[in-house]
Amino acid sequence: MRKVTEFQAEHVDGAENYPLSFINDHLASMVSKDTFYVHCAGGYRSVIAASILKARGIHQVVDVAGGFKAMQQTDLPMTDYVCPTTLN
Hints:
Elements: H1 4-9, E1 36-38, H2 44-55, E2 61-63, H3 67-71
């Protein structure tokens, strides 16, 4: 649920990104029986995304408390950080 540049700068290794502004474009590719862990930078956009997904029939949604900032404090494998100003 993060912005494209946020995701490109650093993310959990193997994660997929569906920016909030394009979430409806990805609904067909989401299988409703899967569990989706959603997060954004700090936690605001992911709450909105989780609500949209649940309203669209995707109920196995876990909103990661604290967002990506909280995830950076764990031992989850992350991609190497790339300064956002260097991204096209």
